[in-house]
Amino acid sequence: MAITFNNDRPLDIIAIGRACLDLNAVEYNRPLEETMTFRKYVGGSPANIVIGGAKLGLKTGFIGKVSADQHGRFIREYMTNAGVDTSSIVFDNEGRKSGLAFTEIISPEECSILMYRENVADLYLTADEVNADDIKQTKMLLVSGTALAQSPSREAVFKAIQAASAHDVKVVFELDYRPYTWKSDMETAVYYHQVAEKADVVIGTREEFNKMENVEEGTNEESVRRLFRYSPQLIVIKHGVDGSYAYERNGTVHHGKAYKTKVLKTFGAGDSYASAFLYALLQEKTVEQALHYGGASAAIVVSKHSSSEAMPTEEEIIELMANGETHG
Amino acid sequence: MAITFNNDRPLDIIAIGRACLDLNAVEYNRPLEETMTFRKYVGGSPANIVIGGAKLGLKTGFIGKVSADQHGRFIREYMTNAGVDTSSIVFDNEGRKSGLAFTEIISPEECSILMYRENVADLYLTADEVNADDIKQTKMLLVSGTALAQSPSREAVFKAIQAASAHDVKVVFELDYRPYTWKSDMETAVYYHQVAEKADVVIGTREEFNKMENVEEGTNEESVRRLFRYSPQLIVIKHGVDGSYAYERNGTVHHGKAYKTKVLKTFGAGDSYASAFLYALLQEKTVEQALHYGGASAAIVVSKHSSSEAMPTEEEIIELMANGETHG
Amino acid sequence: MAITFNNDRPLDIIAIGRACLDLNAVEYNRPLEETMTFRKYVGGSPANIVIGGAKLGLKTGFIGKVSADQHGRFIREYMTNAGVDTSSIVFDNEGRKSGLAFTEIISPEECSILMYRENVADLYLTADEVNADDIKQTKMLLVSGTALAQSPSREAVFKAIQAASAHDVKVVFELDYRPYTWKSDMETAVYYHQVAEKADVVIGTREEFNKMENVEEGTNEESVRRLFRYSPQLIVIKHGVDGSYAYERNGTVHHGKAYKTKVLKTFGAGDSYASAFLYALLQEKTVEQALHYGGASAAIVVSKHSSSEAMPTEEEIIELMANGETHG
Amino acid sequence: MAITFNNDRPLDIIAIGRACLDLNAVEYNRPLEETMTFRKYVGGSPANIVIGGAKLGLKTGFIGKVSADQHGRFIREYMTNAGVDTSSIVFDNEGRKSGLAFTEIISPEECSILMYRENVADLYLTADEVNADDIKQTKMLLVSGTALAQSPSREAVFKAIQAASAHDVKVVFELDYRPYTWKSDMETAVYYHQVAEKADVVIGTREEFNKMENVEEGTNEESVRRLFRYSPQLIVIKHGVDGSYAYERNGTVHHGKAYKTKVLKTFGAGDSYASAFLYALLQEKTVEQALHYGGASAAIVVSKHSSSEAMPTEEEIIELMANGETHG
């Protein structure tokens, strides 16, 4: 097993970062201009991951800041009902809003997101609002890269990582790169690298690793060579329909093929991948199996309308792994 | 007639200010937390007024800035289709978003709006983007108070007013006070007063006049006494179900009663009032009649789901004036 | 007499705007890089004007905000000792600093100023900190254009003007254009015009009038034509060694020649001009005489090391007017 | 020897951070309000350290950003003349100013500094402006804590550290805590800790270590216990007249007493300490000797008027070590 977790903990995963609102087109296969009705869902990568984890049976928690309004209350309540421990979610008391994502689905190949991320509450979580006691009761701290985009959320993440390191909590860094808020590519590279150095597990797409390395087109070999000089034990690099690769510090490399599916939209693939992959790791499955869990979970979510509500059960994942067809 | 317009102009009204998106609850009579589906409409007070004016047969135009994204393009296209001249609408090329208003309708008495106004495109219209040539071809410039809330939109309004004054375009100031963006009550009072001094017609609720005067509870008599020292010729102060009062510079006072109606929500009342009142003035009806037009139009819109699409035709207004019942 | 003042007032002039620190090169006639020692003086156009006025025997006061530190305390104490009523000066309690001006005197023709104006205290005077009672006890409110460069100082000025207009206090607008802080030429033009419209007397250089009109090179005729449509009664436009022109609303034009002098540096000329010109007006001298007072005072200050301490007495001015040689 | 440097490098120390202007009271032993004349010097902790190092015979360089004005040009030229390689100093092309420090010397016990640090050029050094090639030619990168106070300077420092770590350049972290610019104590603690973790040598006062640990009053034992879990090899904690302590990773502790001196002011003590201490380390003297060098150098500078120009020669230091008296 690539990673050993401290099983003596009540929580499996606690995530830190954004919990937002998705406004998904009710009428899709058309430009957003022509979509007149929207359905709301909870969104945001780390929120989706813990919701997905809870659906798979994990005990999950969330550290973040939401708006002190109807949207923020909805987010917190939805996550609570989904089984996530939301006692570490705080409300913003300076009138900041929760982030929004309007999704546009023109076709499976043409999807885009119209983001409202201006001064959103999640980026104003402060280090003071991160409680080390919340972190030391979990096996794994999941850090979302977007939470690094701005102060004070950035320092809140650093404090959480410090607490994790002090209490033997494994740190998983989901790169989750979003071009909003960041001031420059260099800034992104500096902070992504800072966190990746301290993480035990790093997960991202090839494009996200390029962002972290501030290169046009990097190679997996170079990426893992750089990171294994620091703390990481396990590195997962995703290549879309070409599947994903997992690199262990001991030199072992694994490849997981991508499952074929009827794609409705591409949103939510990364979040569902992460939740199932981490679930498998926590269940002490092999890295190989974990890659299949991740791939199957992603394939299921891209065929459905939402990102959070569509998170699969383990039965659905096992069913697809058993009977699904893979690319290549 | 209280105001003489320069009839030698191709446009009746050009408005300056915000054009945004309303996201109205499809399921209403419940808290916003429980509303899962939203329908989008064009919104924003000055946009609603020119859409309403166009529906009544006026030739209207709009000066403003919208997002260079799907929402901004929808707004511009919707307004064009509604008959508004949108050639003076510019797109924001720095990634700013169009404002949003989520409406919550718990009951006719409990309505609220959840606003997204953080760094919105409309507040970034610059004075350079206001073209005096657009203004000199109209009878009336309608200024929305919210456009004064921040630079550079504030200076854009001042430039528009200077152009109007140089070309004998009457200036109508719709107070349209919204508590967002303003830094202090004193700031609001200073800029509202600056514009009111230069306006020919000033329209607002009693509460909005209080804001302009920075008082807890002012009187109509004091409000008109102060403003008639400057440019205003006609001042309209609205008192909800107690109807509205129009004050002419020559001392004449008119009272228009409010029409009874089955209220669904209170949004949009002011915009529909203004469009019908100004329509009547431009049609050279008496101030008395204009008050009735405004009141009837408001009564119709509050009984319907949207603010912009629900704008009445003149037939509907005349029908209500003929058969409607009034308060008090 | 061009302007009639309300003589029933204890103060002659109250100025609103900045009071700062000048750091003048002790060793001059060299680049600032090579100047190693600096002597501090109070500076800032409106501060200099009231200090100069006090030296001429006027009763003057000052409304402004200074740093709550040693520099701010020095400024207030210096002005008090110079005879200025400083009871309306407030201290900034948010740690903002007083502005600084390092002067470089390479030669009489090559002078420059290195300004520290980043978030300076004077630009944070608020409308709430302007007391109408301070204004109604004076004959004249002197507004410095630089105070319009940013909120909340800008609104503080508007409030002061409103108070002046309500209590028959004449408003003198000294354009005092400084390129710092302003975001665009259009913004400058908009606010300069707003204030000039409401002023009784407008004083500036030809270049400053160009800034107000947002033109490359305007003419005095056009400038006065525009402004006489509004409140101004008297307009003074300065043309350096070609002297200054005063335009009265009744069409009378006066020309005052510039006095020859041994120029040390050009700083402070405008401030000393304004203080002596306004002194003469308040003494009910003719506009013609006032132009000579202004010109003589300016000639004296440019021959000396500082701007504030070098302000002349009436004897010095009269002596130069009697025996001085003029340009052209 | 506690630290082994890569002697195969043309430079001994390259510092990153601020280079500013000190404006020292010519007339002292009085409140700053009463000081009328100021003499300018180059200032800023890392600038002082490399100037001091150069005076001791080290080859030093500087990475930083200064104003593109007379002050910035003076700073660069002064440092060049002092023997510092200034080829990595860049000029700010957005009009930002160089920082200023007015010193007030009421008595040796009552000194204070009035800082102008608002949007100063040095805090706008970007990661792109830090050249790894400049860093790989030196033995030691000196990082000043104040450079962490704000983006983008903060990321520039992180990039410099990454380059140092990639090229076997020892990192010395001089805590140099200044309360300006930092938004909160937690923010300071987070970034100080980030850098201290990666440094080889950490130097600061007891109060500065408290800031890094975000505690009221910490102990040296706890401070070194925490840091020796990471990269540091040598930690120096200064206790004023009680002298300084050096902790080696192997458990050795050294104490250096403070020298008695006729104190004029307390400024510059830390910078002169650091330059002499690092000089001794680079000369392969013992840690014990290095503590004496640091202490003697500090004692000399506090007896003189400036911080940069007063930096001692090695002869002066040796003389004091030979004949000076120590506290306690």
UniProtKB/TrEMBL annotation, chains A, B, C, D:
PROSITE patterns cross-referenced by the UniProt entry: PFKB_KINASES_2
Keyword set, alphabetical order: ATP-binding, Kinase, Nucleotide-binding, Transferase
Boundaries of every Carbohydrate kinase PfkB domain copy: 12-313
Catalyzed reactions per annotation: 5-dehydro-2-deoxy-D-gluconate + ATP = 6-phospho-5-dehydro-2-deoxy-D-gluconate + ADP + H(+)
Pathway given in the UniProt record: Polyol metabolism; myo-inositol degradation into acetyl-CoA; acetyl-CoA from myo-inositol: step 5/7
The keyword ATP-binding appears for this protein: yes
Domain of life of the source: Bacteria
SUPFAM superfamilies: Ribokinase-like (SSF53613)
Cited InterPro entries: Carboh/pur_kinase_PfkB_CS (IPR002173), DKG_kinase_firmi (IPR022841), Myo_inos_IolC (IPR030830), Myo_inos_IolC-like_sf (IPR023314), PfkB_Carbo_kinase (IPR050306), PfkB_dom (IPR011611), Ribokinase-like (IPR029056)
Gene Ontology process terms (BP): inositol catabolic process
Enzyme category, top tier: transferase
A family per Pfam: PfkB
GO molecular function: 5-dehydro-2-deoxygluconokinase activity; ATP binding
The protein's Enzyme Commission number: 2.7.1.92
Function per UniProt: Catalyzes the phosphorylation of 5-dehydro-2-deoxy-D-gluconate (2-deoxy-5-keto-D-gluconate or DKG) to 6-phospho-5-dehydro-2-deoxy-D-gluconate (DKGP).
Homology family: Belongs to the carbohydrate kinase PfkB family.
Protein name: 5-dehydro-2-deoxygluconokinase
Record lineage: Bacteria, Bacillati, Bacillota, Bacilli, Bacillales
Gene name for this UniProt entry: iolC
